[in-house]
Structure formats: C-alpha cells, structure tokens
Amino acid sequence: MCSQKQWSAIYHWSNAGKCTWYEFAQEIKTQGIALGLLPQSIYLQPITSEQYTSIVNRPTFSVLDTRLSHSISMPKPWQQQLAQCLNELVLSKV
pTM higher than 0.85, yes or no? Predict the structure, then answer.
C-alpha cells in the first residue's frame, strides 16, 4: 500500500477474517503454547460488552471497512499473520 502514487481516501487495513477479542486471545493462547511461549494453558473467560465496564459507548458489532485497501493488496487470514508475528517473537529470543 505504501507504494501507491496517490492517496485519495482513508484506507483501513486488517487481515482477512474477523474475530472477537476473546477469539483473538484464544488463538494467541493456542499458538503460544504450540511455540513454547506459554509454558501451560491458561483459563480465558469470555465476557459480554455489557460485563466490561467502560465509560466509552461501543457499538455491538464493529469491523473496519477494508474494501478499499483490500482492493490494492490481498490480505492473509489473521490467524496466519498472528503465527508469523509470534514466530518472529520466538526468533528474536534466540
């Protein structure tokens, strides 16, 4: 995306797919254990937005509109990109 000659709008980027924060944490846990970043499984408790006390009013469902940026560059599944990130973390500890 950085190689674009001219920018004409706001470009949102995220990897392919969508997930909740809980699903994201679950995948981090699963991959972290497999890579030895976590020595053991940990308990994650899902909560609803109503159970999370915050002064900010958040929509019940919100994902970025990435159609414009995805028309320039094809995203990879977020799980695959997470694996790449965690693998780089493992390699940086060597």
Answer: no
